[in-house]
Amino acid sequence: MKSSFLLIGCILLSLVTAVIRLNMVWEWEWQLLLINVDLLPINQAAVKAALLPEMTTSFLAGGLLAIASSGLQHIVRNNLASDSTLAVSSGAQLALMIAVIFFPAAELFSSFWIALLGSLAAIVLVLFIAKASKLNPLTLILGGLIVNILFGAIASLLTLFYFDFLFGVMVWGSGSLLQDGWATSITLAITVVVAFFIFVLLSRPLTILSLDDEQARRLGAPVNLLRYLVIFVCAAITALVVSKIGVIWLYWICSASLAHFAKIRHLLLRLLIAFLAGGFLLFFTNNLIGIVSRIYDTLLPVGAFTATLGAPLLIFLVLRQRKAQFEASNTAYFPVKRLNSWKLPILLLCAGVILFCLLQIIAPTMNGWAISIDENLMSSYRLPRSLSAIATGAMLAVSGSLLQILTRNPMASPEVLGVSSGATIAAVLSFLLFPTLSSISFLLFGVLGSLTVLALIMWLSRKLQPSALMITGVAIGALVSGLMAIIQLSGSPRLTAVISWLSGSTYYANPNTVWILLSVAILLISATLLFIKPLRLISLGETVSYHLGLEVKKVQMIVLLLIALMSAASTLAVGPMSFIGLMTPHLAKNLGAITPEKQIPISALLGAMLMLIADWLGRYLIFPYEIGAGIIASILGGIYFLLLLKQHK
Length: 649
Fold this sequence. Notes:
The protein contains 26 helices and 2 strands. It is an all-alpha fold. The chain has 2 domains: 41-320, ABC transporter involved in vitamin B12 uptake, BtuC, CATH 1.10.3470; 343-367 and 375-647, ABC transporter involved in vitamin B12 uptake, BtuC. It has a two-stranded antiparallel ribbon. A hairpin with a 2-residue loop joins strand 1 (362-365) and strand 2 (368-371). Helix 1 packs parallel to helix 12 (267-296), helix 16 (419-433) runs parallel beside helix 18 (466-488) and helix 20 packs antiparallel against helix 23 (552-574). The chain is globular. The relative contact order is 0.12.
C-alpha cells in the first residue's frame, strides 16, 4: 500500500513541477505548444524545440533503466540488483572514455556499440565472479561493488592524464538530458516498444525462472539461455540510454524495488510499474533541476543530482526489506589456520623494514634504474611520502579490522561502508568553502563526516543483513560521488588540487607534517590495542559479551571514535583509498591471524607495506609522470578481490 502511495505521490510531484517549469519559460498560451515551430517567435520556438523533447526523453530514459534493473532483479533473484550495483553503467561509461581517448574514430560509427561492449564486459565479469557461488545475492552485490570501484579507479587514472580530452565526457557522463530535437526521444520510444515486446515473448519462461533453477529445468525452461538472453537485453537497454544521456545513478534500483515491494507477482505488470516509477522519478528530477537552474542561473548535472536524491530513497527501500533472508557468512573467505606464535609478525616487521630501506634508494636516474643515495632527495621527497603511505596504510588496515570485528561482517571496511566517503565530502566541502582553515579544522570536519556515516552504519547494522548493509555503503558512496560531480563541474580554481588529492596521492606530504601524521597513527593504533580483550568478547556476540560483564555500548562508541579518527586522518593526509581497509584483514586471516590481538598488528603491518608499495609504484611506474597511490591500491585490490570472490562458494 505504501508503495502505491509513493508512486502516486511521485506522479503528482512530476506533474506539479512540470507545470511550474513550463510557466517559468513559456510565455504564450499552452495550446500553442502544439502548433508548428515556424509560427512562433525565435525564443519560444527554441524553448519548444528543446523543452518538450527533454521532458519526453527524461520519462522514457528513466522508464527504460527501470525495466533493465527490474529484469536483472528477476533473473538473479536479488531485489537490490540494478545496472548501477552490477556495474553495467560503469562498464558503459569506461568503454566510452577509452574510445574517446584511444579510438576517437570509433565515435563516428555509433557510441551505442561502444557502450554495449563495456556494459556486457562488466556484467559478464560480475557473473563470472558469482558463478562459483551459484549467483549468491551477497557475492553478486559484492562483485558489482568491486567491479564498480575497479572501473572507477581506471576512469580516475584516465581522467588524471587526459583531463582536457575527457572534460566534455565528464559533463556528459554526469548525466545530460539537454536536447535539440526529437531524435533521441523517438529512438528511446522505439526501444521501449521493442523491450516490452521481448519481455512479452519471454514472460512465460521467465515466470518459471522465478522458481529455483532445478525446478525450472524440470519444467523445461532453458535456465542459462534465458538468463544470458535477459542480461544481454538489459545491458543493451542500459548501453543505449548511457550513450544518449550519460550515466544516471541509483534511481532505477529504487523504482524496480518499488515495483517489487508493491507485491506484484505478474512479471509484465511489475515491469510496467517499474517503467512508470522510473520514468516519473527522472521526469520529476529533471523538472526540479530545471526550476533550480532557472532560479539560480546555473546548470546542474542530472546524473549527479539523481545520485544525491536517490541515496536516501535507496536506504529507505533497504530498510523495507530488512526481514529478507540473505545468505551471508561471518567467516573469512579463505580457508585459514590459526596463528599460534609471534614469529610471523616479527618476520613481517623485518620484511617491512628491509622493503622500506630498499624503496628509499632504488629510483630512476638519468642513466636508468640505479641505487640513488641522495640525502636531499631522501629527506625532503622520498622519506616524507613513504612515511605518509605507511601511516595511512596502517590506519586504514586497523580501521577495517575493527569494523569487521564490530559488525561481524567479513566485507566491512571504511571504504566499502562509506566511512571514508563521509570524511571525503566533509573535507572537500570545508576546503572549498573555507580555504583558510587550519589542518586541525579540516581534520575535525573529516572526523565529523566519518562519525556521521559510522553512526548511520551502526544503527543499520542492527536491522540489516551484511549484503543489505553493503547496499547502504553503495548508496552513501553514490551520494558522495554525486556531490563530487557537482563540485567538479562548478569551475572552482582549487579543483586541480582536489582532483589530485582524490587520486590518493602522497604528493603533498612534507617533512613538517609527516611526523605529526606518523605520531597520530602510532597513538591511535596503540589506543586500539588497549581494547583487545573487549574486542575478543564482542567478536563472540553482543549478548555473550554483555553477560560476561562488558559495557558493550561504551566500548563500541570508543572504538567507533577511533575508527572515525583514523579514517579521517588517512583521508585528509592522502585522499580516499579503496580496498586497503577491506583487503588487509583478509590477508591477515589467511596468514592465521584470527583473534583481534594478532589480526590488528598484522593487518597494520600488511596495510603499511601495501601502501608503501602502491606509493612507490605510483611514483615510478611511468616516471616522470605520477599515478596516485590510491588508484594503484584500488586496481591491485580490485583484482585481488575478484580472484577472492571467484574462489568463494
